[in-house]
Amino acid sequence: MSPVTETEEHKALRSAVAALGKRYGRDYLTRVVAEEAHPDELWSEAAKLGYLGVNLPEAYGGGGGGIAELSIVLEELGAAGCPLLMMVVSPAICGTVIARFGTESQKRQWLPGLADGTRTMAFGITEPDAGSNSHRITTTARRDGDTWLLTGRKVFISGVDIADATLIVGRTEDARTGSLKPCLFIVPRDADGFERRRIDMELHGAEKQFELTLDDVRLPAEALVGDEDAGLLQLFAGLNPERVMTAAFAIGMGRYALNRAVEYARERTVWKAPIGAHQAVAHPLAQAHIELELARLMMQKAAFLYDSGDDVAAGEAANMAKYAAGEACVKAVDQAVHTLGGNGLTREFGLASLITASRVARIAPVSREMILNYVSHQTLGLPKSY
Ligand SMILES: Cc1cc2nc3c(=O)[nH]c(=O)nc-3n(C[C@H](O)[C@H](O)[C@H](O)COP(=O)(O)OP(=O)(O)OC[C@H]3O[C@@H](n4cnc5c(N)ncnc54)[C@H](O)[C@@H]3O)c2cc1C
């Protein structure tokens, strides 16, 4: 497929997921969040229809597609007002890393469940004292006979309470300092010494964030995914899909907000014509639409490069897509809220909470500034200040 225009299959997937999203919609998610529940019904139905595992290998119950298809699913659910944030981590990062680097037994143990929605996996790399600088992470794995002992702290890790396990990024004792040589471990939710504390976030989302403590968590040898010496390649095999999926999340949210604003601007009349007739209202909405479309184009390019196996080019494109989508989402939400005037801030119209939510894609999984740093150094060859 070409990244510029979508195939008929992709269009069909888009409209099928949009129809599912419409059946649930924003009201469903609002209810789930108010009840402090999880979007289990939508998660299971999307899984049953093959949408959650669309990127996973067919041999393990997946759809045999790629991140291009998975990003369509997340974008359309988001555009319907009911995004599933855990898609960014469970099938996109963890599913991909296990499919690409896992042992046969890890694949058999995890992939069918991730695909059919009966199992979920969270992903933890961020640490309190490292943040954007992943090279500073200190979560350390030490060998003890046939087992590993994992010790460290993580922060802002999404969905650990509902995930059967968390894929934790650490480093081995031998590679404790210097440039990051990451190694990845599957840590079951109830492992001894694995504690979580919920962080009180100002986010109207079903998925919660947690601070994690790992205190000599004993793991079997097969908890290690991939090679302990494989380095950054394995990690980025998961992080590039994460960036593409965060772009999809942001574009979906931006489209949802923009559509609410356009509907409102067509109807709301306080002078002679609906407010949408005023260019001061219409143009920023048109701009938001253009910027979301442009971001999607970059997202499609990144997904295409990733799915065709070009990890290096995909890395640059995924960063740019995440940047463009995060910015487009923040602007679209801001303009949508403004278009509704006072109603933009009411619970009834439900847009105000998106002001906070839309900032997530600007910060996570890699901040706007870190992407600008990446493009400055890697693409433009400018010197580094840090
Ligand atoms: C809702 C949410 C969900 C998340 N889910 C997960 C998850 O599931 N798993 C996970 O591992 N992590 C998760 N994260 C963490 C997220 O990836 C981090 O918040 C992000 O990487 C930024 O790290 P930090 O918060 O420590 O910010 P910091 O690194 O402290 O940065 C703070 C500010 O300084 C700026 N800054 C830092 N260094 C530079 C520099 N060199 N040049 C210019 N500016 C700089 C940053 O851009 C940012 O604006 C989540 C975060 C949020 C908000």
TrEMBL record:
All copies of domain Acyl-CoA oxidase/dehydrogenase middle, residue ranges: 122-217
Gene3D superfamilies linked: Acyl-CoA dehydrogenase/oxidase, N-terminal domain, Butyryl-CoA Dehydrogenase, subunit A, domain 2, Butyryl-CoA Dehydrogenase, subunit A, domain 3
Domain Acyl-CoA dehydrogenase/oxidase N-terminal: start-end pairs: 7-117
Record key words, sorted: FAD, Flavoprotein, Oxidoreductase
Matches recorded under SUPFAM superfamilies: Acyl-CoA dehydrogenase C-terminal domain-like, Acyl-CoA dehydrogenase NM domain-like
Highest taxon, organism lineage: Bacteria
Similarity remark: Belongs to the acyl-CoA dehydrogenase family.
PANTHER family: DEHYDROGENASE, PUTATIVE (AFU_ORTHOLOGUE AFUA_7G06510)-RELATED, MEDIUM-CHAIN SPECIFIC ACYL-COA DEHYDROGENASE, MITOCHONDRIAL-RELATED
Name of this chain's protein: Acyl-CoA dehydrogenase family protein
Domain Acyl-CoA dehydrogenase/oxidase C-terminal, residue spans: 231-373
